Amino acid sequence: MTLVVQKFGGTSVADPERMRAVADHVARCIRRGTQVVLVISAMGKETDELLFMAEQVSSKRPGREMDMLITAGERKACALMCMALADAGVEAQSFTGSQAGFLTDTNHRNAKILEITPDRVVDALSKNIVPVVAGSQGVSTERDVTFLGRGGSDTTAVALAHTLEADLCELYTDVSGVFTTDPRVVSVATKMQSITFDELLEMTATGCPKPAMRSVEVAHNYQVPLHIRSAFTWEPGTLVVQEEPDMEQPIIRAVTHDLSESKITVSEVEDRPGVSAKLFRYLADGGINVDMIVQNVSDQGCTDISFTVPTEDLEAATEIISGPNLADLGSKGVSTDQAIGRVSIVGAGMKSNPGVAATMFETLADNGINIEMISTSAIRVSCVVEASRAEDAVQALHTAFGLDAA
Amino acid sequence: MTLVVQKFGGTSVADPERMRAVADHVARCIRRGTQVVLVISAMGKETDELLFMAEQVSSKRPGREMDMLITAGERKACALMCMALADAGVEAQSFTGSQAGFLTDTNHRNAKILEITPDRVVDALSKNIVPVVAGSQGVSTERDVTFLGRGGSDTTAVALAHTLEADLCELYTDVSGVFTTDPRVVSVATKMQSITFDELLEMTATGCPKPAMRSVEVAHNYQVPLHIRSAFTWEPGTLVVQEEPDMEQPIIRAVTHDLSESKITVSEVEDRPGVSAKLFRYLADGGINVDMIVQNVSDQGCTDISFTVPTEDLEAATEIISGPNLADLGSKGVSTDQAIGRVSIVGAGMKSNPGVAATMFETLADNGINIEMISTSAIRVSCVVEASRAEDAVQALHTAFGLDAA
């Protein structure tokens, strides 16, 4: 019998009507002979609402208590889903992260799974009871409730699928799959039937909204087949596979963009070993997640280092690189730019196709779009451009790489 | 050092401002050298909102899932309270029912506590961390989350106070204590400084709104001193004691009324042994909680049996006493009356004062109020009257028994 882990959350379970639609879908799957394990995350915007309430109650919000608070959202959603399933004629039982056997470290707000011992989930399955597992939560080695972080329900689903040796992990969302680019920006964007893990990882790292990157990494590491699909149209979505079997695949699979970062440039840093290491150690100690890093060509013993950070961390980052720290780097000053956009092309095919980056740069130049920073991986090229030109860049690249729907 | 269990819930913790007010109060208690254990129930009307949501999601609401759903409310409130305490400079840790060691039976929606092993609570206290325990919940012998029922947080507080050998259990509410009658009905009602458990039990059984009757029974059985007081004015409230030390106490302590029940009369039942037993067995099997029972004088081998049930159970009860069941009782028919009110006088002093019941009946007669049913205990007399006259009856009795404030 086929065993499928299905994950639903957010808009997919935002209200009673959506809950019943999901329950009907699960009932249909079971009638077709599929064994189903559900992973449910909080309804609609509930997690945001709980965070907002905590801010109103207190300026001090200990991680242990934040996790106790936020995980309540998933518990509610799981219990309600079991009731909706009961109405649809499906026997179901909810399990908290702890009950489902998710042991985590003690790193509150962003705990990591150490081990899963899903005895109760397995026991329910053996009795033809659908287990409904609360997403993004577990119990720590200190016996406290832990939260796996935003998007952690995808990780719960993938990790559980691996542990149960499920045939497939389906991540249901409000879009119908993974597209060649954002369909809001490029109307001729097309849905991909399949994509490799490497490609999806590059896409989630560069602005593709779903699924959570950490879950894709876990799925990749443990070779859990993923299906990213819609909880609204129920049509087949995009399969995520280890390797792309189709030899006729295009060189570039997708164009992504991201407007959520800002650029920081540290000017005229001394060009000697250890200086950039020092800079990024300061930032890491301050909890700043640095993304693209570009060090310009050295000019007379000095160099400029530019990098991007999430715009929400911009203030904290510039605070860190000031005063004694700035002096320690021997720098003359720091400049920032919030009006940037990152545009990326992604595709495993570029590995064996030289000239892809050149085509990208030419396309941008032909459209009068200036490139401020460049970074590359084996299957991705990213350019930082003016924020106001980012969507133009996406449209031009989508056409240039032959991705527009016929 | 004095150890006090303090319970807050509902309106007392309805919003961030109330949370902070409670946290400030706890901080003050600690500064005065009191050790505090908090028991918190859901904020404002949250439990009602969760019940309403469940009704919208499903017509089938398994008890196990309802408990998972409803207990989320207490978890949220506990976590937020810990954050408010952190802001007030008090280190605190939240504990779910399971974490606080509340083992219960498997009777979902209305579980009974089997055992409390509060190791983590004791451990927190020993480190000067205020334990904040989620009210009305536990973990069953089947390892499922259980809910102790509405008002169960009072029971959690009292049972925990007993287990911890606390010096006092304070139940904070939105009224300033126990009154001689409902102050909304009788403006000259007075707050009692103290009351005996027996009296309070009779009062909670006959319409006094707070605290939950089950918690008073537990406190009575285990001799846990209670203090019922206001979370808004913070003034001293009403102490609940084992025996009334004041010999000058009035004969009658309080007048209560209750409009939430309906009367059912089963007419012309055969007057032979076992018939009424059969009737109430049918009702008990149907889960109907019968309150007052009056069997009228037999007339030519037949008798009328009247009893009251919560109005919400009226339809179910009349359904049970119909068709074959009614025939089995040999009855000619069933009549119901929703427009009834029960008025009660309560006081340990009446045990040694004959004539109290007669005074009550005379007072009602003098005011033209007809008595439909009567039931008595050693320290209480209750009369069922027309609902529209219930408040008149309360006012007249409050005056007649000398309870009006000077």
A few lines on this structure:
Two copies of one chain form a homodimer. Chain A is of the alpha/beta class and 406 residues long.
Task: Describe the 3D structure.
- The structure is a homodimer of 406-residue chains.
- Chain A is of the alpha/beta class and 406 residues long.
- Chain A has a domain at 3-174: Acetylglutamate kinase-like (Carbamate kinase, 3-Layer(aba) Sandwich), CATH 3.40.1160.10.
- Chain A has helices at residues 16-31, 46-57, 63-87, 119-126, 152-163, 197-204, 213-221, 275-285, 314-320, 323-329, 356-366, 390-400; strands spanning 3-10, 35-43, 92-95, 102-104, 113-116, 130-134, 137-140, 145-147, 168-173, 194-196, 226-230, 238-241, 254-258, 261-270, 293-295, 302-310, 333-337, 340-346, 373-377, 380-386.
- The longest helix of chain A is centred in the first third of the chain and has 25 residues, at 63-87.
- The model of chain A has no long low-confidence stretch (mean pLDDT 90).
- The interface between A and B is large, with 39 and 40 residues.
